[in-house]
Amino acid sequence: MLITLEGIDGSGKTTVASALARSLQDINPVLTREPGTNWVGDQVRRAIAEEIDPVAEALLFAADHAVHLATVIRPALDAGHLVISDRYTDSRYAYQSVTLKGRLQDPLAWLQALHAGWTVPPDLTILFVLPVEEAMARKGEGRREHFEQEQTLSQVQQQYLAFAEAEPFRFVIVDSRLPLSAITLLVEGVIRDFSKVQRSRHRR
Ligand code: TYD
Fold it and tell me: What stretches of 94-204 show up as alpha helix (H) in DSSP?
């Protein structure tokens, strides 16, 4: 079973992911992330830092996803693990449909076509939402990636919310303004319940 954590920069999903690593220890999930922790992921980070052409950047993110699927996601799912990924395909659909606006006629359709036939859709996606100004304040005044601008992030969050509206059974929306301990408990509960339901469905 594949669960993904999504949200804009500063939404706290990475902090929740590390808290889940501890609280879900008994079910031994595989925790992973995109961009990945291999050389392709490193090139993605370099591309972000150098602000290369947005089409090239999108293709690198997709290449990183293909490697992630081949080396982490598919083997873990085949071995029967619960897999939790901090960012996944919806990050591309949300961020790159904003960065490719004006460059392509229908960026989202292009991105979906790019993934068709080889990606593995998530069973459940937890979307962390908070006002963009708060996300920006959490990130502080340090060096910002080109995505981390108020206007971009607000469009990215709009995209995420539109996906959640289109697929209400896949998405659970979490209010990131809640205290971390409450969020972790809530997400942990959702994951445990969801995996129980999925397991009993498979047994039938
Ligand atoms: P992030 O998860 O924040 O990585 P790090 O903690 O190493 O900074 O991802 C980096 C940025 O890349 C973030 O702003 C979101 C963006 N991103 C995309 O635009 N598309 C994608 O497909 C992914 C996975 C991330």
Answer: 97-99, 107-115, 132-139, 150-166, 180-203
Query: Which atom from ligand 1 is nearest to the alpha carbon of 145?
Result: 14
Report all structural domains of the chain as residue ranges with CATH numbers, in order of start.
2-203 (3.40.50.300)
Number of H helices, E strands in the chain: 10, 5
Q: Is 81 exposed, middle or buried (0-12, 13-18, 19+ CB in 10 A)?
A: middle
Q: Whose CA is nearest to atom 1 of ligand 1?
A: 35
CA 123 to centroid of ligand 1, rounded, Å:
21
pLDDT at 35 over 90: yes
Residue type, 92: R
Q: Please give the model's pTM, rounded to 2 decimal places.
A: 0.96
Which of 59, 98, 101, 147 maximizes ligand 1 atoms within 8 Å of its Cβ, making it the mutation to test the pocket? Answer: 147
